[in-house]
């Protein structure tokens, strides 16, 4: 089954015909909200808003383990995450959508493994390719089908937040090889890998990163809202097509 984690700007999925809601209690606590099951272009899918229904949970306080465990336990095999980002590389502008292929993790203090020797035994997993190649290909095919521009590949720097970065921090991230910056990609991706899920992320760029483009002096939050409004309909259309391609894959 396809699971979708919605981020900022996507707390509900309008094209999901909801059939039921299920409170998700896990050994790690409750997920961000009840799981929302429904029919998405003719197949069952499940949706979860990462920051809760009212967008009240900040990135560092999301119970990533509960979210991923809950989705896995109801039969999700392919998990598509939506995660807004700031664009670091100069060709990435607000309104673009990036399909990253790599991650650098700058977070700290987050519960970032199931293999802590409590629920699951200690184990080291391979994470060379942090995103599922299969789901990445499905996303690319879906974008091509509907003529949606997608930046294929990107290096996602996951920062702790909730504050945005300084210009010097963005310069450092760029020197490290990052092209986009967000706050929620980790530990979500690694937890999905630990449970064997195919995980990919669609990253709408909602602002130029600090010190770049029109964020040279400061990041304009009004502009972020405007960009979110314009971009999310494209993201919804893309999710629907990804669900279609996934059904036949
Ligand atoms: N930095 C970190 N996270 C973000 C940004 C950003 O500029 N934009 C959206 N999420």
What characteristics describe this protein?
single chain; 249 residues; alpha/beta; Rossmann fold; 29% helix; binds hypoxanthine
Brief summary:
The chain is an alpha/beta fold and 249 residues long. The chain is built from 5 helices and 14 strands.
Radius of gyration: 17 Å
Overall geometry: globular
CATH homologous superfamily assignment = Nucleoside phosphorylase domain
CATH topology: Rossmann fold
Helix content: 25-40%
What is the average of the pLDDT values? 96
**What is the CATH architecture assignment?**
3-Layer(aba) Sandwich
The first-to-last residue Cα distance is 12 Å
**Series of secondary-structure elements, N-terminal to C-terminal:** EEEEEEHEEEEHEEHEHEH
Give the ligands present.
Answer: hypoxanthine
Secondary structure class reads alpha/beta
Major beta-sheet overview? 12 strands, mixed
Q: What is the CATH level 1 assignment?
A: Alpha Beta
């Amino acid at each position: 089954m396809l699971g979708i984690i919605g981020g900022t700007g996507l707390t509900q999925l309008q094209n999901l015909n909801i059939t039921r809601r299920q409170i998700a209690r896990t050994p790690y606590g409750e997920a961000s909200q009840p799981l929302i099951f429904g029919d998405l272009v003719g197949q069952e899918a499940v949706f979860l808003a990462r920051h809760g229904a009212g967008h009240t949970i900040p990135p560092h306080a999301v119970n990533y383990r509960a979210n991923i465990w809950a989705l896995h336990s109801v039969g999700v095999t392919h998990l598509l995450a939506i995660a807004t980002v700031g664009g670091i590389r100069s060709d990435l502008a607000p309104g673009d959508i990036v399909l990253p292929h790599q991650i650098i993790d700058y977070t700290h203090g987050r519960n970032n493994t199931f293999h802590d020797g409590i629920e699951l035994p200690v184990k080291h997993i391979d994470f060379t390719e942090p995103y599922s190649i299969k789901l990445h290909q499905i996303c690319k095919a879906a974008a091509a089908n509907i003529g949606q521009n997608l930046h294929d590949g990107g290096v996602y720097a996951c920062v702790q937040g909730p504050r945005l970065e300084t210009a010097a921090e963005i310069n450092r991230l760029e020197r490290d090889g990052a092209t986009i910056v967000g706050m929620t990609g980790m530990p979500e991706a690694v937890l999905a890998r630990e449970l064997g899920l195919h995980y990919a992320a669609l990253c709408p760029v909602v602002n130029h990163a600090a010190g770049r483009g029109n964020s040279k002096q400061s990041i304009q939050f009004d502009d972020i809202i405007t960009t979110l409004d314009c971009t999310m309909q494209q993201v919804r259309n893309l999710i629907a097509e990804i669900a279609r391609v996934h059904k036949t894959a």
